[in-house]
Amino acid sequence: MSVFKLNDKAPDFKLTGLDRKEYHLAEMLEQNDEKWFLLIYFRGSWCPACMEELDELEDTKSYFDKHNVSLITVTHDEKSSLEEMMQEHQFSFPVLLDEDFSFLKAYDVHYHGEDAPYEDHGEHAEPAYFLLNENGKVLYQQRQTNPFGRPHAKEIRKTISYIRKNLK
């Protein structure tokens, strides 16, 4: 697993979205129009806390658009379950499939495996958040080891505002 600090260049990734498009971070940065990227790894469509969070992000997506922040979500959940989720929730941001756990490993997302000290819906990744600037440098990161304590959309908006205001 890779460990990186704030202001480090984020690891590159190439993942396919539910929209069947390929998302390659290096290409998105090359074609970038000064956009920042908020990458959110979520547990899966089966997780009520994740669905509540994604609904809240969708409801406040205009804030992210206004502040030139592109929302991108990532999960390793089953494609068929995610397609049902998209039909029900109609998210306008990309949902990328991390089928081979390449993003999870590169971004050091916590994996709740069979060796975990407590049972929690089987094996899965936990929520993680990465805010990248227009050059792909990490401005903010948070990795959870359980489903609770994650920042809500309001806290993420405050974080983005704070970072923009205090950027060196």
UniProtKB/TrEMBL annotation:
UniProt keyword annotation of Disulfide bond present: yes
A GO MF label: oxidoreductase activity
SUPFAM superfamilies for the chain: Thioredoxin-like
Gene3D superfamilies the UniProt entry points to: Glutaredoxin (3.40.30.10)
A Pfam match: AhpC-TSA
Swiss-Prot/TrEMBL keywords: Disulfide bond
Family annotation (InterPro entries): AhpC/TSA, Thioredoxin-like_sf, Thioredoxin_domain, Thioredoxin_ResA/DsbE_sf
Location of the Thioredoxin domain: 4-165
PROSITE patterns (UniProt xref): THIOREDOXIN_2
Protein name: Peroxiredoxin family protein
Organism from which the protein derives: Jeotgalibacillus salarius
Species lineage: Bacteria, Bacillati, Bacillota, Bacilli, Bacillales
